Amino acid sequence: MTFYSYDYLVQQNSTPNVVFITVTIILVAALLFTGYRYIRNRADNKYRDLFIIFVMGAALFIGINYNNYEKQLDISNKTNQTLTLMRSVAKVKNVSVKKLYSNTSTPAEGMLIKNGKYYYRVSFDNNQNSYTLTNANILNTKTVNLQK
């Protein structure tokens, strides 16, 4: 069973969005540059061809990755909910969030929160506006892996 630290979840939550946005910005910059060069040198067809290639590449990249981006946003929102839950548990238990671990990155009924040597099972109400912590025991603690 793998448990994820608060810092690990924060780090995993930001990486894919940054990559998508960075590549999109690079493609837009290439489009602006080649578009500007094409307008300045209409007699030189290489800039027109480069501009068309970048337009097609940008359309292809955005078309392919848009669905993945939406899925990543959904996962990011759920991870943010887990991070909020961990901050709340840290406040209730009066510990640092750096000492808490979660066995999942998305809030779910029955998820486990690890606080030092203690484990808590999380139960949510119907619309996940409130939660209840109950003590839980792990049968085999040797199988617990911590992702820091």
What does this entry look like structurally?
Keywords: Membrane, Transmembrane, Transmembrane helix. The structure is a single chain. The chain has 148 residues and is of the alpha+beta class. The chain has one domain (2-147). Helix content is 57%, strand content 18%. It has two helices and six strands, in the order βααβββββ. The protein has helices spanning 6-40, 45-93; strands spanning 2-5, 100-102, 112-115, 118-124, 131-136, 145-147. Strand 3 and strand 4 form a beta hairpin. The longest helix has 49 residues, at 45-93. 11% of the residues are buried.
Unreliable parts? none
Give the number of domains. 1
| Order of strands in the sheet with most strands | 5-4-3-2-1-6
Shape: elongated
Q: Main sheet?
A: 6 strands, mixed
Number of beta strands: 6
Structural class comes to alpha+beta
Strand content: 15-25%
H/E element sequence: EHHEEEEE
Q: Return Rg in Å.
A: 23 Å
Mean pLDDT across all amino acids: 85
Overall helicity: 55-70%
Distance between the termini: 14 Å
* Contiguous helical run count: 2
Produce the secondary structure layout:
Blueprint lengths: L1 E4 H35 L4 H49 L6 E3 L9 E4 L2 E7 L6 E6 L8 E3 L1
Parallel strand pairs: 1-6
Antiparallel strand pairs: 1-2, 2-3, 3-4, 4-5
Helix pairs in contact: 1-2
Considering the chains and any ligands shown, give keywords for the structure:
DUF3290 domain-containing protein, single chain, DUF3290, transmembrane, six-stranded mixed sheet, membrane, 57% helix, 148 residues, alpha+beta, transmembrane helix, elongated
